[in-house]
Amino acid sequence: MKNVSLKNIQKDIVSGIIVALVSIPISMGYSQIAGLPAVYGLYCSILPVLIYGFVTSSPQFVFGVDATPAALVGGTLATLGIVSGSEEAKAVVPAITLVAALWLLLFFFIKAGRIVNYISTPVMGGFISGIGVTIILMQAAKLFGGNAGTGEAIQLVMHIAGEFDSFNLLSAMLGVGTVVIILVAKKFIPKFPMSVLLMVLGALATAIFHIDRFGVKLLPHVDKGLPGFSLPDMSVVFKNPSDIILLGLSVAGVVMAQTLLATNNYANKYGYKVSNNREILAYAAANAASAVIGGCPLNGSVSRTGIADQFGCKSQFMSITASLTMLLIVLFGTPVLEYLPVPILTGIVVAALIGITEFGLAVKLWKTDHTEFVIFVGAFLGVLLFGTIYGVVIGVILSFIAVIVKAVEPPRAFLGVIPGQEGFYSLNRYRNVKKIKGVVIYRFNGALFFANINTFVDDIEKNLDDNTKWVIVDAGGVGSIDVTAVDRLMTLYKVLEKKGIRFYITEHEHTLNDQLRELGAGEFVEKGVVRRTIPLALRDAGLDRPYPVKEEEEQAVSGEVHEDNERLAEIEWAFGADADEWLEKMAAEMADEIGSVKKDEKNVIVDAEKHAAWGRIGLFDENDLLERLEMHLFDDKKYPNLDIDDIEKRIDERRVVVEKKLAQINPDAIQMLKEHRKEMLDRLKLHNPYVYEHMMEQKRKHYEHLKKKDPELAQKLKNFYNLSDDDK
């Protein structure tokens, strides 16, 4: 067992006791749905749960009598004409349970748990949410005095509507009140065992005020004592072999899929690993134990796991405690059960189920990836409308469709160059990227095959113009190609050739050349269509640095490259369109940090940058950051006690250092900085003239102060801000 320790054991014991108490009404109700007397739900919560706790690899999941397997069994009994609770039912149900256990054992040997590896997070989230909402709908009528329902969402809603004939106001107040109190307590006092307190208060209300006289349902009478142990009579299987064997397979499939998905969801949530195959063995062992005591099939319980999680369960000592608690209840505590109000116990279950739904994930997916949002909704509605197995199947199918969609529409971009920098950059990502005159450079990140070759060709053809002379494909992300894609590439090559446009494929691994030759495109290799790098393709096209860029000034990009982009424009690389917003945030963080330091701290600017969320950044970004920092600091309404003269000196000293380094590393970047600084000052002057005038006044004062003390720095400051009489 994982995580068993003295540190955790107290929470595990409390969780186990609460799980056992909450299991009483759930297990008894679902046992009756499965066609057995209610007391068998308690029996199935002792030995099978104990065995599961010792075999499972999950430290926190709860196993027991649950809705879906019970409904499957109960439905089959009705089809076979077997009366629920009859002696015949008591013989057939454990036989079905044993058949399900044998199917699970087969799943263990063939390692069927690998199916979970093909189920994505949106599928898991939708599945868990669907299960949670389904069980809430099953239990909802019990909140106001009705009975639990079975089936899928539509049948359950109709059942709830029909149960309003049994509506009891006091029951509704107790049930709904329980849900509200637990949810509020979970937010404000999450460690307080509110569920236990409410159960105690409910029992006291029955003992003192006899609330059952006002129509509130209580748990039914249960005889104390333990069940007998015997192997099920398997002769009943031969009377209806196809029905029972197929039902056992269906139950085993539901148990495996539902419990594995939910177990892995908790494992992902808390960052631990479970062994899927060992989990299936635990399910088989627990169901075999249920069969020998005459019980129904068992399943992982999402609702009770949510309760255990709420109380800080860390290990399967919880399951051991729960089984021992249930043993004591069956032996000595059955008279007390009759005092527990059903609405309160149902409210505890519903509150736990609300906590396990993952609609927050759905909102996140809606904002970030509509395809994965559709997968979430598909899995959710699949479970809700068609049941567990169909929900999983729908989710898996949608996952594979999503893989195909992403393969058809992989990340791709058109590239250009940045003055003074090595490499090629997305035209849509960086503001300073320039197109090379007459050249289309296209990056495609994904295997090229029949489903996406049209996307590839269409992208290129749409970006050709009358001046295009060369098309270069950056195929660094193309790991493989199929025969359909090769045929289309050959066609594209010939079409471009007729237009006088040279075609190149570059940056790929040598294995792609081998595939091209094997699939009939050896001409690409023999005629030099394939090139090792983009610069080599440009060289073959007659273009060397400085590359002629496509702009009004026809300005050439410097041929002297001093460094790559590791230290330049990193924030734009990381945040894209949000770069400006993020730099503003960092400037505000630094301003707050600077506002708390002493006047004579020499490295105040660098230290403040280190304390910001991102930390130290590149030279180009740091220069931009210093500009924004000044705008924040010179708002003396926010920092009235700041020594502006001292801070101004530190900022200017740091700016000189930064721009001196930039001049050495990348001379072409200086002109861009000047243009960018002018844009920022114009924007500040327009939107916040008070801060602009205040900042420029400080600059003039600082300039006058420096003229005698440090003429070189003074001149740099004057050039930085174009200080003149016009600023006065």
Output the strand order for the largest sheet. Answer: 4-3-5-6-7-8
Overall morphology: flat
Structural class: mainly alpha
Q: Hey, roughly how much beta strand do the residues contain?
A: under 5%
Low-confidence stretches: 552-567
For the secondary structure, the number of strands is: 8
Helix content: 55-70%
- The Rg value, from CA coordinates, equals 35 Å
End-to-end separation in angstroms reads 77 Å
Main β-sheet description: 6 strands, mixed
Q: Can you lay out the helices and strands and say which pair or pack?
A:
Layout: H1 6-33, H2 39-43, H3 47-55, E1 63-65, H4 67-80, H5 87-109, H6 121-140, H7 153-163, H8 169-188, H9 194-209, H10 235-239, H11 241-270, H12 276-292, E2 298-300, H13 302-310, H14 317-337, H15 342-356, H16 359-368, H17 370-386, H18 388-408, E3 412-416, E4 425-426, E5 439-444, H19 453-462, E6 470-474, H20 483-498, E7 502-506, H21 510-518, H22 522-526, E8 530-531, H23 534-540, H24 570-575, H25 579-594, H26 604-611, H27 619-633, H28 644-665, H29 667-687, H30 689-709, H31 711-721
Parallel strand pairs: 5-6, 6-7, 7-8
Antiparallel strand pairs: 1-2, 3-4, 3-5
Helix pairs in contact: 1-4, 1-13, 1-14, 3-12, 3-14, 4-11, 5-11, 5-12, 6-7, 6-11, 6-15, 6-16, 6-17, 6-18, 8-15, 11-12, 13-15, 16-17, 17-18, 25-26, 25-27, 27-28, 27-29, 28-29, 29-30, 30-31
